[in-house]
Structures are given as structure tokens and as C-alpha cells.
Amino acid sequence: MSKEIIIMFSTAMTFLLLARLVALKCGLVDKPGGRKQHKGEIPLVGGISFYCAIVAFYLFWPEFLPHTEAHFLPYLLSISLLLFVGIADDRFDLPVVPRVFIQALSAVIIMVDGFYLQTFGKVLGHYELLLGPIGYLVTLFATWAAINAFNMVDGVDGLLGSVASATFAALMVAFMLAGAHMRAMWCLLMIVALIPYLMFNMGVVVSKRLKVFMGDAGSMVIGFTMLWLIILGTQGDDAVMPPVSALWMIALPLMDMVTIMVRRLRRGQSPFHPDRDHLHHILMRSGLTGRQTVLVMTLLTATFAGSGIVLSRLGTPEWLSLVAFLVLFSGYCVTNNRLQKRNPDLRKKHNSPHKITVNGDLPASNR
Q1: What is the pTM of this model?
Q2: In what helix (H) or strand (E) does residue 263 lie, and over which residues does it extend?
Q3: What is the C-alpha separation between 128 and 194, in angstroms, rounded?
Q4: Closest to 113 in 3D by CA, of 69, 80, 83, 152
Q5: What is the predicted pLDDT for the residue at 39?
């Protein structure tokens, strides 16, 4: 196992260094200005190194894949499309429509392979809620939700990588407890593939002058990978947990996305309208530093995901687990709205991105 960890880390690190050099030459960088408050031009290559590490394992060590090689190919094709459209978006700032279309196409590719949400489990009591043909539509919306939920988390240095790592760790535990050791190992390798990015993004061990960002390419690949692993874990004969547990796994990114989109719609704005009212923005306006915000949100992610695992292991009825999640969701919405009203974004009132500052580390991006 240590051999695979070393290989994954070395591969991700190598591709990160190479991609960083190429990105600086071809302009694949995030420039400061407006809502983006970082200093200098930062290469958007975290997602590229993550993707390349996955591809390298597929090419040279296919025996360690979490699924059969034939069924892994559609997933690989899907994340390849997401990577390329993400790079194009990072470089040229694409409109919403082509991004949404490619995200839908990535879902269609795995669905054609028979990989989709077929059941919601026994959330109606003793009766299993089978989705039938509607499962394809549900999978499509789940893809959009997972991709955009993790994309919106990417707003403070280290936040996306830390939240994703906590979710991968929870999935690893769920697979391990069920005896699905190969899939558990793959989740661990996903965390290892993120470590070089976190080191460079947060300036840990390496110099802060070598800073990199994840980019939309990375957040989309990570979000889709998360959904793919959740489908692996909740659907079919090899399911290791009930589908409702998936909601607990991605609870924090999902709740943040829904809350912010509803808030935008109530203002008469597009749900994709950029602002600074995400949970990480609110926490920083409340007085937390960037590092403290990352710690709080990572711990919340781990706590929620762990709660889902515990409920599943205790044999809690799935309908009751769903009710508990909805109670949690309601509590989150109330708390989030109160914090947002108590700590509003004063930039909106002053109409200037430079009059108000926040404590701690500067955001990595502001979606």
C-alpha cells in the first residue's frame, strides 16, 4: 500500500510542477481584480495534476482501479471532457451554457454505460423507492449539483482540497467497513493526489511564491469523481451504504450551494450570479481567518459525513436518516441566514471591491 501512495504522490507532484510552468507561459492564470483579492498571477493547475495522476494510475496500474477497467473508461472520458472545458473556462471565462452542456454530457456518458441512480433506497419506510427511467434525469441533476457544489466551495486557500479530502476519507471508511478494500484504497489515493496541490496552494513546506489554484477544471473533476464514487457505493448489488448516506457525505457543499442559490433567486438574480455570500465568506466576515475557516468547514464536513456513516452502521431506518438530514439542512439554513444578516457584504453598499477587507488569508477565488 505504501508503494501506491508514494507513486500517486510523486505523480501528482510531478504533473503539478510541469503544469505550473506551462500555465505561466500560456496564460492559464488567475489575475487579481474585482472580487479576486490575491496578489500576482496564480497558475490554475491543481485540477490538472489531480486528473493526470488518475490517468497515470489507469495506464500503468489498472489493477488498483475501484471498478473494472471497462467500466472505468466512461468515467475517465467524462472527467476528460470536464477537464478540457474547465481549462477553457479558466483561460477564457466561458458562459454558463457550454459548461452546463458538457457537465450534462459527462453524465450521459456514464449513464450509457448503465451507471446511474436507480434507487433512493427505503426512504418511504419498508418500500424501496425505485426510480426507473426517471433515474437518468435524477442522475443528470445530481451531476450538476455535485459539480457546482464543490466548485462553489473553492473560495479560500486550501478549502476545496480540505473539504474534498474529508469527503474522500468518509467514503474510504464506508468502503472499508463494508470490506470493499480496493475502493477504499482508491479514496485514499484521491486524498494523496490532492496533497501536492494543498502544499502549494497553502504554502505548506513549499514557498508561497510557488502558489497554485485549483481552477474550475479541478473543482469539476473532483465534484464528478465524488458523485461517481457515491453511485459506486450506493447503487447495485455491491452497494455498501444506503443512498440517503450520500446526502450526509456531501452535506456541507450541498447545503451551501442550495442556500446561496435560493438567496440569489429571491433577489431576482441568476442562481449562478457571483457574490460573496458563501459560508466561507460569511465566516471570514464574522472574524475568522482563512485558515480558521478551512478548519471549521473541514471539521463540519467530517462531522456530517461521519454522522451519516454512524446512522447507517447503527441500522437506522433510511426514512429516519432522511428526516434527520432535513432537520440538519433546516438548521443550517436558519443559522447561515442569521450570520449573513449579521455580517453582510459591505462591498455591495459601497460598490467598491477595495474599501473593505477581511481578516486572514486572501480568498483563492470568489465564485
Answers
A1: 0.91
A2: helix 251-266
A3: 37
A4: 69
A5: 64
